[in-house]
Amino acid sequence: MLFLHMQQHNVLILDFGSQYTQLIARRVRELNIYCEIHPFNKLPKNTNEFKAVILSGSPSSVRGEDAPHPDLTLIRGKKPMLAVCYGAQYLAHFSGGKVAPSNTREYGRANLSFVKNNEPFFSNISEGSQVWMSHSDTIKELPTGAVHLASTSDVENAAFRIEGEETYAIQFHPEVYHSTDGKQLLENFLVNIAGVAQTWTPDSFVETTVANLQEKLGNDKVVLGLSGGVDSSVAAVLLHKAIGKNLYCIFVNNGLLRKNEFESVLNQYEGMGLNVKGVDASARFLNALAGLSDPEEKRKAIGNAFIEVFDDEAHLIEDVKWLAQGTIYPDVIESVSVNGGPSATIKSHHNVGGLPDFMKLKIVEPLRMIFKDEVRRVGASMGIDPELLGRHPFPGPGLAIRILGDITSEKVRILQEVDAIFINGLKDSGLYDKVWQAGAMLLPVNSVGVMGDERTYEKAVVLRAVESTDGMTADWVNLPYEFLQKTSNQIINKVKGVNRVVYDISSKPPATIEWE
Ligand code: XMP
Predict the structure, then answer these.
(1) Which residue of 165, 291, 468, 504 pairs with 436 in a disulfide if CB–CB is 3.0 to 4.6 A?
(2) Is 173 a catalytic residue?
(3) How far is CA 497 from CA 82, 84, 146, 398, 453, in A?
(4) pLDDT digits (tens, 9 = 90+) for 259-288
(5) Marked catalytic residue, from 106, 119, 166, 175
(6) Among this protein's residues, is 85 annotated catalytic?
(7) In this structure, is the dihedral angle defined by the CA atoms of residues 329, 331, 336 and 340, taken in order, positive or negative?
(8) How do residues 330-341 score in pLDDT, each as one tens digit?
């Protein structure tokens, strides 16, 4: 019943390839409204389940040969529709209006001036409200039946609606933060005009997902690989709520985790009541890495070793039918995007990939429709320890891609000590939660130092702390000098084999977060 209710309050976002499409979805979710992004050329079959439709922007021009030109007859006038930027231009073009290059290309800040007053679409939004523009075409002539609603100094047709329909179009982007009343405008359209209910909350997500998982999985057994990270942990707790002991969790120690991480995280999982098995495969991973120094070869060796260990363990579970994964919505959107996925592979982890087919397991992904911040909110609503939910991201290959060059157990030991001093220091100084990700790298160089009148010739380590929202772009964090000074002293005094500490002050791009 609840699921049905949720579906009837779905919003469909038709993606024309804009860089901001994900942002539209996030803003809608912030209004506690469920929405899904679908590429314009792969419309879902069940469009009836959607209560309203939003057309996204696009890098294309409606006049271009390859521009998205979907048939809107099934939607226009039948569902409340909000068309944004390219979406607005295409709606005009499709409905008999005229779109042409604008004399002044409009990017950035603009201010609305209303042509019609008392429009529910603009309720609680003041004349002059700042909006964000990013377009080079403009709507020269509105289509038949259009009611002109607003202009800016450079754009005559900045907003219009179609008389007798719940169809609205805006040239600006309400989804970006710089459109001051963008969220209010989305609320006006979705809640007041389209009548969508604001029932999408972490609690309702948990209730609905648990019911769906129970129906889908019945008495089947499910295996899941825990990583210690937020996504797999929240996925595990959701599945555990749904099917209890039929969820078999496997937590593999690849020997490349942080200091004491394996034992402490395993304890934490057991404390949460999960049916979890810790598998210490450190030696197997170190063997697989022996002699390798190329980053991609190291990733491949670790990936293969993980599959072997996981497969061995999964075979020990009699009659297991499903493999659960902690995939989240940005990965899904990326893999079904208008362009069909990422354009260039910088590092192999950017490609979404699961375990190979030979496992013969069906896949279940309870988080595949939610964003990272929602995963955290869902985790919190199920009572997961805030410390676990607030953990920094940590790469799957772990310290192997933070030890530049080849890996030995001695190098792992050194880096674990350095990393522990840095991370514990951040926690003790109240800085940990202000940083998106932090860690240390071990460089493959020795440098000369002097300790107690003796010459040393030892390793250099790098400390890296970045702020980011999704890891796609990042900037280094301006950590206090006193903190860096204290941390550097502690590392050099306490970690044998290190005589030099440097702090990484590169942003991404052009650098990346990890050094390999
Ligand atoms: P980069 O170094 O590409 O990192 O700026 C962006 C984010 O991805 C993480 N990362 C990985 N995660 N397997 C993973 O699971 C990998 O091979 C991998 N390489 C980088 C990195 O820690 C950061 O959060």
Answers:
(1) 468
(2) yes
(3) 62, 58, 74, 21, 16
(4) 999 999 999 999 999 999 999 999 999 999
(5) 175
(6) yes
(7) positive
(8) 888 777 767 654
